[in-house]
Amino acid sequence: MTIEHDIKDVELATGGRYRIEWAGQEMPVLKQIRERFEKEKPLKGVRISACLHVTTETANLMQTLQAGGADVVLTASNPLSTQDDVAASLVAHNEIPVYAIKGEDNETYYKHIHASLDHKPHITMDDGADLVGTIHKDRREILETIVGGTEETTTGVIRLRAMANDGALEFPVIAVNDSDTKHLFDNRYGTGQSTLDGIIRATNILLAGRVVVVAGYGWCSRGIASRAEGMGANVIVTEINPMRALEAVMDGYRVMPMQEAAKIGDIFVTATGDINVIDTHHFEAMKHGAIVSNSGHFNVELNLQGLADMSESEPTLVRPFVEEYKVSGRSIYVLGEGRLINLAAAEGHPASVMDMSFANQALGAEYMMRNAETLENSVYTIPEDVDMEIARLKLVAMGIDIDTLTEEQETYLNQWQEGT
């Protein structure tokens, strides 16, 4: 290969290309954007460093950005989420530099992030804000080339808003996660289905009749809870937000503190974006055979170091992605090293839902290049009309028609004189 890269095996490229094409069939909105990008080249000459999950869906986004004229480099946003055949295909067939190997250690992970930043990007594209964080902490010399960035996840947006509030953020960022066509669909339906897919692939357990404890009741957790309930699980929700806890109760779930849920749960899933959501005192309360997983972006949601310190011996890998910890004679099973279980043990979100999320990424990059000069160093949401256009394109692709307002209805909604 003439382009720089660090992947597992370029010989995997053919299989990766077939899977990328398969996913592309389920991404009609992104396809329409790609066709326009090929004609208009709105990203011509723009260098983009992307730190995203290296999956078939991401590959379709990279091809779309490239079609728009962008010079793209891709690195993994999680050590266990890379699909090695996809990385190989992007290198071999699209000549996109990729730095990602499934299972890479922490040192390699950050070495790859730095390699992507050597690209001196105009735009950063993040899934968890590790690119932005690394730039601000260790690579400030490249700030002068950066126009702005985009961020995919709830966790990343939380970090970026904290930076903006502290006055530490040095360039504007589009919070893709805050678009309705992202979080209402990707987070709820994508995370809901793919999380259970990962748990089932890792364990081959029956969910029906099990007590599933879901930490948090944001959009990701709502999806997990509803899909678990749909498969016959008895769902418990834990929350710190009174409004969300009330919603969970009204949706028919039991709500209680994690300490109480820990005593009766069979399967635990965290998706909060916070640290030590399941802590040592929770592990201590769990019953024999408890299964613990995480679907939040970082594995810090589980206090795995604390669990290791409590354990009577080194953890045992009893199945792929299933480690057994022995605590006071009980077995506690941790899935996927506490990392995103839907990507560690499965393939992540279905392409159909990522179609809208990555449409937001592509249009977010275009919007940033057109409007960066008017934006402050803060976190922004894609304009509502762009969000609505993505929804419209998705409906068209699904063959679904909707009503439009008549002139009379438009007039009625924009006046106040006419009443009952």
Characterization of this structure:
The chain has helices spanning 13-24, 28-40, 56-67, 84-94, 106-117, 130-138, 154-165, 180-203, 219-230, 242-250, 258-264, 280-285, 304-310, 341-344, 351-371, 384-397, 407-413, and strands at residues 47-52, 71-76, 98-99, 123-126, 148-151, 173-175, 211-215, 234-238, 254-255, 267-270, 290-294, 316-319, 322-327, 330-335, 379-380. By secondary structure, the protein is α/β, with parallel strands linked by helices. It folds into two domains: 10-182 and 349-397, Adenosylhomocysteinase-like (Rossmann fold); 189-344, 3-Layer(aba) Sandwich (Rossmann fold). The mean pLDDT is 96.
Keywords:
15 strands, 17 helices, alpha/beta, 46% helix, 2 domains, eight-stranded mixed beta sheet
